[in-house]
Amino acid sequence: MDYEGLIIRPPSEAYSLLLQVTLGCSHNKCTFCGTYRQKKFKIKPFEKIKKDIEEARSFSDVSRVFLCDGDALIIPQPRLIEIFELINRNLPDIERIGSYANAKSILRKSVDELKELKALGLDIIYLGVETGNVELLKKIHKGATYEQMVEAGRRVKEAGIGLSVTVLLGLGGIEESIEHALDTAKILGDIDPDYVGALTLMLVPETELYEDYQAGRFVLPDKFGFIRELYLMIEKSSFTNCYFTSNHASNYLSVKARLPREKEKILKMISSVIHQKDMSLIRPEYLRGL
Fold first, then answer.
1. pLDDT tier at 142 (50, 70, 90 boundaries)?
2. Which residues pair with 43 in a beta bridge?
3. Once rounded to an integer, what is the mean pLDDT over residues 237-255?
4. Cis before residue 69, ω within 30 degrees of 0?
5. What is the mean pLDDT of the chain?
6. Which of 23, 60, 129, 250 could form a disulfide with 200 if both were Cys (CB 3.0 to 4.6 A apart)?
7. CA-based torsion, 112, 114, 119, 120: positive or negative
8. Cβ contacts of residue 170 below 8 Å, gap of 6+?
9. Domains detected in the chain
C-alpha cells in the first residue's frame, strides 16, 4: 500500500483496510491539532489509489474500508464515485466504507449526492465538532459555525449514513469549562448523531494552543475537571438513540452508554468518581495517548 506520512483512523476502524485517498487535511487550521501540519493537502493520483485497491484483493478478511487522510469527502463527486465503484468491483465482500469529514466538505455535497455514496457503500462519516460554544469555535479556527455544524450533521443523517461525532473535553480551558460543556451538550442534541466519541484534550507542541498554554494564556482543567465536563455533556444531552463513549486513550475515565436509555446509570457512576476523587479510578497519565 502506498502510504505517505502519518496515518490515523478512529478506534472503531481498527480492523479496516486503510485506503489513503487524500494527503493531509483540507482545512488544517485548528489551533489544537498538529496531526497534518507537516502535510500539504492534496488528492492522491487516481492511479495510485487504483493500484492500492487492486493490491488489497490479495488481502484476507477485508470487510471494511476506511478512507484516509483527514477529509476524503472533499474529493469531487465524480472522482469519489470512481473510487467507490473500484472498491466494490475489487473487494466484493466489503460491508462498510467509512471516512472522516468536516462541515465544509459535507456541505459541498447535496443530500442526493450523499445518498449516491451511501448506495455505493459509505455507511459512516466521522465529523469533528469539538465544541458547541460559538466563540470557542471561532477561537480554535474550526472553520465552521454552530449552524453549519448542525446542518452538516443533519445532512449526513438525512442521507441515511451513520454519523459519529467527536467532541473534545477541556477545549475551553478552565475559564470556559462549564460553558463549553453545556454548549456542546446543546449542539449534540441539535445534531442528534448515532455515535459520540468524547476525547480529552492533549496539548501538541508546535500548535497555537500549546503556545498559549506555554505562555499562560490557556489553563487546562484538572483531571476531575475534565470528568465534570463529561458529566455535564451527558446530563444535559438530548438524544434519540446514541451510543456515547469516552474510551479513547486520551481520556481519564472510560464510559460506554446507550443514551438516553442508560443515562441515569452512567451519570451515577461518573458522579461517584468525581466525588470520591480516587486517583485509582481514573487512567494514569502514563497510559494516556493520542
1. very high
2. 22
3. 95
4. yes
5. 95
6. 250
7. positive
8. 177, 200, 201, 220, 221, 225, 226, 229
9. 11-287 (3.20.20.70)
